[in-house]
Amino acid sequence: MDGNEFLEYAETRELRKITGPPCDWLKTYNLKSWGFRQYGKTENAYDSFKIGDVFVFHSMKQEYLPVDPGIKTGIIGAGILSNKRIIENEPSDNAFTPEGYRPIKIYFSDIWFFGNTDRIENESIADKKQKGMNYILRDIYNLTGNIISFHEMRENNCTISTQGAVSKISPEKSTRLLKLIASRLH
Q1: How far is Cα 82 from Cα 184, in angstroms, rounded to an integer?
Q2: What is the pLDDT of residues 14-68, one digit of tens each?
Q3: Do 169 and 56 meet the contact criterion of CB atoms below 8 Å apart?
Q4: What is the largest CA-CA distance in the chain?
Q5: What does the alpha-carbon distance between residue 94 and residue 125 come to, in Å, rounded to a whole number?
Q6: What domains are defined for the chain?
Q7: Torsion-angle region of 32 (φ positive above 0: left; ψ -120 to 50: alpha; else: beta)
Q8: pLDDT confidence of residue 63
Q9: Are the CB atoms for 121 and 138 separated by under 8 Å?
């Protein structure tokens, strides 16, 4: 699916937002998946997810690395849900996430990041960590480039919630947000 087909498809769907730190988005770039911690709200959200749902990716402040003021927060991409499952005995990522930390998994058939992805090696976060923190930070800067900032969302009356791991975006905000996303896909 190309960017135009995605936009046409997304206009017919409800949008959801996923929030996480930039290191986790590097894992999504590599694996085309996302993991949630297991607790009531995420379990309820997971139960409501359907194949074909559209998610926008909100990158928040650093969680595993020192805070870097040059890394902005906002929407960095989008994806279409292709599968979901709960993984018993989820293995560690051998970098930042311990065993069993995020067993609720969703997978994406199609995924778009707005940054300079041609400058990112598609390798595991463990491999990136072995190359050093500066290597990871470089990839984070590339991944979060061309971000839809909160300033831009405020100007277009489509600010998303920063709270919670996952939430729905109202249809009115979704329409305006898709216009901002469209500007990143062309």
Answers
A1: 23
A2: 999 999 999 999 999 999 999 999 999 999 999 999 999 999 999 998 877 776 7
A3: yes
A4: 44
A5: 8
A6: 3-185 (3.10.590.10)
A7: left
A8: 77
A9: no
